[in-house]
Design a protein that fits this description.
single chain, alpha+beta, Thrombin, subunit H, Pdz3 Domain, 2 domains, 6-stranded antiparallel β-barrel, 8 helices, 23 strands, 24% helix, globular
Length: 383
């Protein structure tokens, strides 16, 4: 190859390489300029969000701030905690076949509801106790006296003399909704005083069979941890108001199934009415019929070949009682009061307690296999 051809070949390669380099540079500049026009400035990121949203749309943001909830719980406990007490009852011993058993104690919780020294607790906490003491949140203790009880709502009122450390604010239990955060304060097992547990309102309007021929109605169900010793203590909302009195737990079903988080509390609206009557009268006014009775269930009916599956079998009629004055007899079976038929969901006591002393009701009875009716004007009796 001559030197002329070699020189032309080298010149061609240089031209090709230059053209390629120039094209790449030009393309890069164009792309850079396009990107600069399309991308928003780094200092205004919110503008790009606004531009891609439709003109009539609204951005929604879900914010969960656990700090607010924790602060509300802390403040509620600080407000109510000093008004919560541990209730200790001394139950006298008994003489048995094996000798004297010695005194025993029962423990529960309570809460001050008045600056006059009145304490609200459960009836089953102080039942059979002859001596009562309360232990304040600071560890000091004082003797207490029993003002009165109500077996059917499982409530009792105690009283102390002297200084009251704090009084709880009572809320409105009718305004509760499932899912609301609630706080239980009490002394589980009697040892862990003023323990705080947190949960939610699981349901309202629950009914629990007491096993004594009546049910406790209108209860609040919660999954806040409640143990033996919590009974009588307050269930509190995030506003620091007592909205219920803790009363019982269910650990297992009749079939043996183990359950957790099934606690129940008496609505404070019910407790307020009951406690006011106890403080004013020493008892709760209940309608009085004047009979002793045996509840009838399908099992009892089958065993004794009774003509009905539900009702109450009268075993005694008190002299000069409303029942006696109306001609009720031993052996009569009450199957209904006014338009309410006694059945699995309508116990005799709960149905009777829908009336007041002085009301006149019509009882439906079975007597010697025949259905009859009797009008009775109810009297008044403390529980």
């Amino acid at each position: 190859m001559s030197w002329k051809k070699l020189l032309l070949f080298i010149l061609a390669i240089i031209l090709l390489a230059g053209s390629a380099l120039f094209g790449a540079m030009a393309g890069g500049v164009i792309v850079y300029r396009l990107m600069s026009q399309d991308q928003p400035a780094a200092s205004t990121p919110s503008q790009s969000v606004v531009e891609v949203l439709p003109a009539n749309s609204q951005a929604q943001t879900l914010t969960v701030n656990t700090t607010d909830v924790e602060t509300a719980v802390t403040q509620a406990v600080q407000n109510v905690g000093p008004s919560v007490v541990t209730v200790v009852g001394t139950i006298p011993g008994q003489n048995t076949f094996f000798g004297y058993t010695g005194d025993s104690t029962s423990t529960g919780s309570g809460v001050f509801i008045s600056s006059d020294g009145y304490i609200l607790t459960n009836n089953h906490v102080i039942e059979s106790a002859q001596k009562l003491q309360v232990i304040f949140s600071d560890g000091s203790q004082q003797d207490a006296t029993l003002v009165g009880t109500d077996q059917y709502s499982d409530l009792a009122v105690l009283k102390i003399t002297g200084n009251v450390p704090a009084v709880a604010t009572l809320g409105n239990s009718d305004a509760l909704n499932p899912g609301e955060t609630v706080i239980a304060i009490g002394s589980p097992l009697g040892d862990f005083k003023n323990t705080v547990t947190v949960g939610v309102v699981s349901a309202t309007g629950r009914s629990i069979d007491s096993g004594l021929g009546y049910s406790i109605d209108g209860l609040i169900q919660t999954d806040a941890a409640i143990n033996q010793g919590n009974s009588g203590g307050p269930l509190v909302n995030l506003a620091g108001q007592v909205i219920a009195i803790n009363t019982l737990i269910i650990r297992s079903s009749g079939s043996g199934t183990v359950a957790e988080g099934l606690g129940f509390a008496i609505p404070i609206n019910t407790a307020r009415v009951v406690s006011e009557q106890i403080i004013q009268n020493g008892y709760v006014s209940r309608p009085y019929l004047g009979i002793s009775y045996q509840p009838i269930t399908p099992r009892v009916a089958a065993m004794y070949r009774l003509p009905v599956e539900y009702g109450v079998y009268i075993t005694d009629v008190a002299a000069n009682s409303p029942a006696g004055q109306s001609g009720l007899e031993v052996g009569d079976i009450i199957t209904g009061i006014d338009s309410t038929t006694l059945d699995e969901t309508h116990a005799y006591i709960n149905t009777l307690f829908q009336y007041s002393a002085g009301d006149t009701v019509t009882l439906t009875l079975m007597r010697s296999g025949k259905q009859i009716e009797a009008k009775v004007t109810l009297g008044e009796s403390g529980s």
